[in-house]
Amino acid sequence: MILTEFSYRESSGWQLEKLTLHHQNLIVGMNSVGKSRTLEALGNVIRFIKNDSELAKKDFSCVLRLSNSHQIEYAFELSDGLIKSESLLIDGQSKIVRNASTAEMYGESVNPPANKLLIQARRDTMRYPEIEEIILWAEHTSLYVFSNITASLKSLSPYILSTEPLIPEMYEQIKNQQNVLIEYIKELGYQIDKIEVVENASGGKWLLIYETGIEKPMEFYELSNGMFRVFSVLLYMIYSSTLKGARCLMIDDMGEGLDYRRSTKLGKIVFSYCKAKSIQLIVTSNDSFLLDTVDLDLWNILQRTGSVVTSLNSQTHQELFAKFARTGLSNYDILSSNFITNHVNTHKG
């Protein structure tokens, strides 16, 4: 199950129009265009599907399209803690139709709580397997805000949206791939010989990091911020590949704070690994180092006019991307130059 399309609107007027997604995605754009806000919006939707009460007073609407062996279109509108509308289409067939006063689910009239989604109130894996797929997709999606990951005791759980184990327990659970993680870290220029799981006096798990040429190990929260960010993201990526069910990993601002070599290498590792392990990957960045390593076919270029955000990609704007490919310029130049503006103006003319 992967997310293939996402639209979102807030009561403030901020609106994301039909973002098309694939197995691997790089969302790019200049500052303040809405990259982080797009992942935040998707996070709001996922949290509400998972019944997060903190969102009860938010006002927003969304459309999700998910694809597996069938096509799912799910949409709902939330206003002042109440569900104003909800709909579910499976391969084009209507399964849920709901407004503020009536609701029908799989052909039956129902009376759900006004503040609960029908997919929450009527969860039944036998009768409504497609609903279970939506909820499992939400439960299997995690978000890392790369620039917010800092090495500290409070960062035992640096991811959000998911309820995965703390970092030491997560490392312990990837036994067959611990060497893979260490090798990736070495490829990024961090000289790590060994990572050891230990138990502290209160029974909690802890990690000790052994660096090349240094006899005394470091505790993992003593790592530099850059190394800790890399370690956290790679650890979760590998850990998620060991779990049952399709996974989705979202990384906001990936590569922030890293130098050229490490940013580009991290991008190559993450995109390659997630592709091989069938993990849906949604990354945002405007880091020129990273952008030049990711194929343009995986890009969504966000543009904002007022409060409305739209996207351009090689499927929706084939001529634009094909024309740019013939210029021989670097990937980043499609953002930093006037290429898009000139193309759009010429096309209008």
Automatic annotation (TrEMBL):
One of its GO terms (molecular function) is ATP binding. Keywords: ATP-binding, Nucleotide-binding. It comes from the Bacteria. The keyword Flavoprotein does not apply. This is ATP-binding protein. It comes from Xylanibacter ruminicola (Prevotella ruminicola). The lineage of its organism: Bacteria, Pseudomonadati, Bacteroidota, Bacteroidia, Bacteroidales.
